[in-house]
Write a structure and sequence with these properties.
elongated, Sufe protein. Chain: A, 6 helices, binds FE2/S2 (inorganic) cluster, 3-stranded antiparallel sheet, 142 residues
Length: 142
């Protein structure tokens, strides 16, 4: 019984992955399956939480040393494309000067991920807005 159930789950996972490969790049799928910089931080220098229009939430945490991002992480309760966008935006922001973060746009995230389907474009906007809000939190505190 368990073997049949496990096989059915594996088949379902395979078919979901095959469908995802038709619309997402290999990088987006890797970020979805193995998110980068994922997790909450206990004592960040700055942070932000934003709820998107779809109801998904994105959180970003920053540690800043000498005006540079020395550590960054994100957390989301959203779907695969939200995980991919959170991974991408945190990778793009990593080790950058805090002022250069302000230049990161949803287009950068979409380009980094090799494109996104129309229905997932808002995920890149949510990721960037959350990043910018965390930077604003830093400037308001310092
Ligand atoms: Fe809502 Fe991705 S589906 S942010």
């Amino acid at each position: 019984m368990k073997d049949n159930f496990d096989e059915a789950v594996l088949e379902l996972q395979e078919s979901i992955l095959e469908e995802a490969k038709k619309i997402y790049s290999e990088k987006a799928i890797q970020y979805f399956l193995h998110p980068r910089n994922f997790g909450r931080m206990n004592d960040p220098d700055a942070s932000a939480i934003v709820k998107g229009s779809c109801g998904d939430t994105m959180e970003i945490y920053l540690v800043i040393k000498d005006d540079k991002i020395s550590s960054i992480s994100f957390y989301t309760d959203g779907c695969g494309s939200t995980l991919a966008c959170g991974s991408s935006v945190t990778e793009l922001a990593k080790e950058k000067n805090i002022k250069d973060i302000l230049k990161i746009s949803p287009s950068d995230v979409i380009e980094d991920l090799g494109g996104l389907p129309d229905e997932a474009l808002h995920c890149s906007i949510l990721a960037v807005i959350t990043l910018l809000k965390s930077v604003a939190d830093y400037f308001l505190k310092t």
